[in-house]
UniProtKB/TrEMBL annotation:
<dbReference type="InterPro" id="IPR049809">
    <property type="entry name" value="YehF/YfeS-like_WGR"/>
</dbReference>
<dbReference type="InterPro" id="IPR008893">
    <property type="entry name" value="WGR_domain"/>
</dbReference>
<feature type="domain" description="WGR">
    <location>
        <begin position="10"/>
        <end position="73"/>
    </location>
</feature>
<dbReference type="Pfam" id="PF05406">
    <property type="entry name" value="WGR"/>
</dbReference>
<feature type="region of interest" description="Disordered">
    <location>
        <begin position="90"/>
        <end position="118"/>
    </location>
</feature>
<protein>
    <submittedName>
        <fullName>WGR domain-containing protein</fullName>
    </submittedName>
</protein>
<feature type="compositionally biased region" description="Low complexity">
    <location>
        <begin position="96"/>
        <end position="106"/>
    </location>
</feature>
Length: 118
């Protein structure tokens, strides 16, 4: 399972919040990790561990609701075979509109030099 949220901060930069269960916990069968910060690959991290799948799902739903109320939007979600269903995530997932896709293509400057580093 993996859910990534994003929002625009007051300074104009992006903030990310990611929840995943890729890393197992040594002492608990039910766990997930939350990371947040200015970049997807780094920032702060917190590990949550639980005694049951029900507890884990309850906490996961609580965090998702908090993030959505705080203005975060769903960037990416994948649940695989986890069996967890979060209606909040599915209803908030939006694909870019045709005008947004075409504007990003229009903003690309083909004459700009490509810098490659060895």
């Amino acid at each position: 399972m993996m859910i990534t949220f994003y929002r625009t901060a007051a300074d104009g930069g992006l903030r990310y919040y990611t929840i995943n269960d890729r890393q197992g916990h040594l002492f608990s069968r039910y766990s997930f990790t939350a990371t947040w910060g200015r970049q997807l690959s780094s920032g702060r991290e917190k590990l949550y561990s639980f005694d049951s799948a029900e507890e884990m799902e309850r906490k996961l739903k609580q965090i998702v609701k908090q993030r959505l109320r705080s203005g975060y939007k769903v960037l990416y979600s994948y649940f695989g075979k986890s069996g967890i269903e979060l209606d909040e995530v599915d209803s908030r997932r939006r694909s870019p509109s045709a005008s947004q896709r075409s504007s990003s293509i229009r903003n690309w400057d083909s004459s700009a030099p490509v810098v490659r580093r060895a």
